């Protein structure tokens, strides 16, 4: 079973239909006056957290305070963190802040992202790979493909995302600099902008298990940082990421860095679905690379960020302006992606929407759904607790709802 | 099992931007029936190309997808201008699409050839000035 990270506080949920209507995979139902998430269908996109007006939904994250038993705590900030601060002149200030709030070291995910950019350029030159190559950095997209677009599974880039490369490099660095540390002494803390990365870290990628130990919400760290960053001390650390690495925080940053014009970048879950449909139908010609981000604006649009994604993006532009293009290059004689940066197995296809394992039974159920659907008002009001009249008809046929009398509109007539 | 299921879609010829919608809906329904992904893709591509053709050339039309035990049938019917020379229309790269459509990246003359390529059977019944009906079959076994 896929472990999710979207949590519902039943006492706060009013049973309104807002999340029901916004869920892109129709994974939510309202039952007994509150929302219920179908875990098989949930892709952890965080839309329901974003739209909930009662704050009843949140992403499950760990608290930094609860993991003090690690002797050597390393912060792995996502580059989207840098876009949260007003008038940030130097990324170093944020990194120093992380040390000041109690981390022993910092390893920027943006630094690892620059290596992933280099690996991507190499991977695109590989003979016989399926094009367009689809970025596997956004875990929502990876899960969406494994649930809905089985044909595109082989288009996913089989290279580990920046957070994993960062985790490997950070651990290696810690052990080199502090040979006295044992493996269990080192704690790798990813500072995440979104719920999906929390789930990804708990579930892994195919058969690959994440090397991150703890995930903390960017929101949580932000308020702690504000306190220490105000002091304006001169930082003792310096950022090791350039324009490219930090660019990964917003949509288009990853793809524009591959130095190939035949790319497409789309963001926002609806647009992601449209692009995947178009690729599956083969009607986007001659693309080399596709970057997809479930959140509007890219990672800066994650549900655990503070600032509006467009403002964050603008801030990142000014932070990036005078940075070198990239600070992390592969040696000139390196023409292959290291073996440990590949994930050997891609996520498997799970046909979640299938009505029954038996085809005849599915046909019978579908005929029933069509029949019931025909008698419903068709206004998709959501009052019955299902997102659409069609979904309601399916819920009746699947036996998830008692019967058609649950329809509030038919009741009245 | 002798029963079959029909999914009917109205392809709106007025709105070019909505072209391709029926293909997305078909895909969803075939997934619910547990049809293998490869077959879904074949049907979806054939359907998409047909839909685009109906919007570009015929001002829309009707699409029916009939699923039975051993096959999926796609019937696309329109009341457009009809196809004068079917053999010519079937040639790759031949197109009568207007420039306005080509500028959007359509009208490359691959629609009908792709529909044939992705289906097991295809018949075109067309009368100039009356309309066109295309019937395609994708076998399930």
Task: Describe it.
Helix content of chain A is 36%, strand content 11%. Chain A is of the alpha/beta class. In chain A, the strands form four sheets. In chain A, strands 6-5-8-9 form a four-stranded parallel sheet. In chain A, helix 13 (359-375) packs across helix 14. Chain A starts with 5 loop residues before the first strand and ends with a helix. The mean pLDDT of chain A is 92. With 141 residues, chain B is an alpha+beta fold. Chain B has one domain: Histidine kinase-like ATPase, C-terminal domain (Heat Shock Protein 90). Helices cover 35% and strands 28% of the residues of chain B. Chain B has a five-stranded antiparallel sheet with strand order 1-2-3-5-4, covered by helices on one side. Chains A and B meet through helix 11 and helix 13 of A and helix 1 and helix 2 of B.
Task: Write a concise keyword list for the protein shown above.
heterodimer; A: 413 residues; alpha/beta; four-stranded parallel beta sheet; three-stranded parallel beta sheet; 15 helices; 36% helix; 11% strand; B: 141 residues; alpha+beta; Heat Shock Protein 90; five-stranded antiparallel beta sheet; 5 helices; 5 strands; globular
**Beta-strand content bin of chain A:** 5-15%
Overall average pLDDT of chain B: 88
Give helix % range of chain A.
25-40%
Question: Going across the major beta sheet of chain B, what is the strand order?
Answer: 1-2-3-5-4
């Amino acid at each position: 079973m896929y472990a999710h990270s979207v949590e519902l506080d039943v006492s706060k949920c009013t049973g309104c239909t807002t999340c029901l209507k916004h869920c892109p995979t129709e994974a939510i139902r309202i039952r007994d006056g509150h929302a219920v998430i179908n875990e098989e269908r949930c892709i952890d996109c965080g839309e329901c957290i974003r739209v909930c007006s009662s704050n009843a939904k949140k992403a499950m994250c760990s608290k930094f305070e609860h993991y003090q038993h690690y002797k050597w705590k390393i912060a792995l900030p996502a580059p989207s963190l840098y876009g949260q601060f007003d008038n940030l002149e130097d990324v170093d200030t944020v990194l120093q802040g992380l040390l000041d709030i109690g981390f022993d070291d910092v390893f920027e995910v943006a630094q690892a992202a620059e290596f992933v950019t280099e690996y991507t350029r190499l991977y695109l030159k590989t003979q016989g790979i399926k094009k367009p190559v689809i970025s596997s950095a956004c875990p929502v997209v990876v899960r969406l493909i494994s649930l809905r677009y089985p044909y595109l599974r082989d288009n996913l880039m089989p290279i580990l995302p920046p957070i994993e490369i960062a985790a490997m490099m950070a651990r290696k660095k810690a052990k080199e600099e502090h040979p006295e540390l044992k493996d269990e002494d080192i704690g790798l803390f990813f500072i995440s902008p979104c719920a999906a990365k929390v789930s990804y870290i708990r579930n892994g990628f195919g058969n690959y298990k994440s090397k991150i130990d703890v995930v903390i919400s960017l929101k949580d760290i932000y308020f702690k940082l504000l306190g220490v960053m105000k002091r304006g001390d001169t930082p003792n650390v310096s950022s090791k990421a350039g324009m490219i690495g930090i660019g990964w925080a917003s949509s288009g940053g990853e793809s524009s860095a591959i130095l190939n014009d035949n790319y497409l970048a789309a963001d926002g879950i609806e647009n992601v679905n449209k692009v995947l449909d178009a690729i599956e139908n083969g009607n986007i010609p001659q693309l080399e690379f596709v970057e997809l981000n479930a959140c509007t604006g890219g990672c800066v649009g994650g549900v655990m960020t503070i600032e509006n994604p467009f403002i964050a993006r603008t801030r990142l532009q000014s932070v990036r302006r005078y940075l070198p293009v990239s600070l992390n290059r592969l040696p000139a004689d390196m023409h292959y992606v290291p073996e440990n940066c590949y994930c050997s197995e891609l996520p498997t296809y799970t046909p979640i929407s299938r009505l029954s394992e038996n085809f005849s039974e599915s046909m019978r159920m579908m005929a029933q759904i069509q029949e019931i659907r025909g008698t419903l008002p068709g206004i998709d009001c959501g009052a019955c607790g299902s997102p659409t009249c069609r979904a309601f008809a399916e819920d009746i046929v699947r036996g998830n709802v008692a019967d058609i009398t649950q329809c509030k509109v038919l009741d009245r007539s | 099992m002798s029963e079959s299921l029909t999914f009917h879609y109205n392809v709106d010829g007025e709105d070019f931007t909505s072209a391709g919608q029926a293909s997305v809906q078909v895909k969803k329904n075939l997934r619910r029936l547990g049809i293998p992904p490869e077959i879904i893709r074949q049907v979806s591509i054939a359907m998409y190309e047909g839909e685009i053709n109906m919007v570009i050339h015929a001002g829309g039309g009707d699409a029916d997808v009939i699923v039975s035990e051993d096959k999926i049938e796609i019937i696309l019917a329109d009341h457009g201008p009809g196809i004068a020379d079917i053999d010519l229309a079937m040639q790759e790269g031949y197109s009568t699409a207007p420039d306005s459509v080509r500028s959007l990246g359509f009208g490359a003359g691959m629609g009908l050839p792709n529909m044939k390529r992705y289906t097991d059977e295809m018949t075109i019944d067309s009368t100039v000035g009356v309309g066109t009906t295309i019937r395609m079959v994708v076998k399930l076994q």
